[in-house]
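Title: Comparing notes on inverse folding

I've been comparing how different people in this forum approach sequence design from structure. To keep things fair, I'm posting one structure and asking everyone to reply with a full sequence. Here's the target:
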């Protein structure tokens, strides 16, 4: 159970970071107009807008409503920032280890009931940008106020359909602290975007599992098909070897032809071993089971018994007259013989 909680915390942190980065990037690209309502000592609000023509400089807040100007035309589709007077907030300093800078919001939320009279659900709160003290610790200042107070201002401008409403204040040292932010349904909310990313991750994980199961199933089917093909190939090979047709099988006929047909290499090897060193072969013809050789030798008649003594040749005879010319170093002969195909030298 603890491992599941840890995994969920990691996923929440990752999706939250990605959603925040995406929203921040979109806001840089498409930034809505900014309208500021800054509370002054009299309790009224100074209005700062991009288009300030025919806009009153001060707006009163009475009975939960802003009066004195038509804010609907000014703030619709804009981002509203309500800057409240610092005296409405409770400020508390907080010192933490330097490694806690990445988890500052969660730490403040967990300790808000210890630092202020309110719980996290009863207050709006925020912290200033942390200041490093050496490399070991950081310090920040927490600002908190009752949620009921902040929501009265938020409800007063929500009906004008702004894209976002933020409540901020300033510390006595001039540090700006945002204690509340609310986005309209049309705007991109990091929380909703984070949940969407989690849903996408879940769907991707389910798709991966289904893909893995399908791949395993297809692999088993292909393996079975391969085994069947190998079995059929083995049967065909057995049939070719003559398991079914005996000596009439193609493989048996091919093997018999191999041993019945004389090999020219073996014929040439055997003939070179038989003939003496003073004999030179200038012609050699293989026709079926008959070989014809011609050349020059010192003693042509002695070649006939030499050839017939071999187990590879029989019925050796001269098929043309033996001649001798003054320019030849010996007798010119022409002999033919029958080949006994043994296919071994």
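Reply #1:
Here's my take.
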């Amino acid at each position: 159970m603890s491992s599941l909680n840890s995994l969920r915390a990691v996923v929440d942190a990752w999706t939250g970071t990605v959603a925040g980065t995406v929203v921040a990037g979109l806001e840089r690209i498409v930034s809505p107009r900014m309208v500021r309502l800054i509370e002054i000592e009299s309790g009224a609000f100074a209005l700062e807008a991009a288009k300030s023509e025919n806009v009153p400089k001060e707006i009163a807040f009475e009975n939960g409503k802003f009066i004195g100007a038509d804010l609907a035309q000014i703030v619709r589709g804009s981002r509203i920032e309500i800057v409240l007077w610092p005296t409405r907030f409770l400020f508390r300093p907080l010192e933490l280890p330097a490694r806690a800078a990445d988890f500052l919001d969660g730490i403040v939320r967990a300790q808000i009931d210890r630092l202020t009279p309110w719980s996290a659900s009863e207050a709006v709160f925020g912290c200033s940008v942390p200041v490093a003290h050496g490399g070991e610790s950081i310090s920040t200042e927490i600002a908190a106020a009752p949620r009921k107070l902040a929501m009265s201002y938020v409800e007063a401008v929500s009906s004008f359909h702004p894209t976002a409403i933020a409540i901020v204040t300033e510390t006595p040292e001039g540090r700006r602290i945002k204690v509340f932010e609310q986005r309209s349904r049309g705007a991109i909310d990091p929380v909703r975007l984070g949940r969407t990313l989690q849903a996408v991750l879940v769907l991707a994980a389910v798709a991966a599992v289904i893909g893995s199961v399908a791949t395993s199933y297809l692999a088993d089917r292909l393996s079975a098909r391969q085994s069947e093909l190998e079995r059929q190939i083995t049967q065909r090979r057995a049939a070719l070897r003559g398991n079914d047709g005996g000596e009439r099988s193609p493989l048996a006929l091919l093997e018999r032809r191999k041993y019945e047909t004389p090999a020219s290499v073996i014929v040439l090897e055997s003939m070179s071993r038989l003939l003496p060193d003073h004999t030179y072969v200038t012609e050699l013809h293989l026709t079926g089971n008959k070989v014809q050789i011609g050349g020059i030798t010192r003693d042509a008649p002695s070649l006939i018994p030499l050839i017939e003594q071999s187990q590879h040749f029989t019925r050796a005879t001269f098929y043309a007259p033996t001649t001798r010319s003054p320019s030849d170093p010996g007798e010119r002969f022409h002999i033919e013989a029958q080949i006994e195909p043994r296919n071994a030298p």
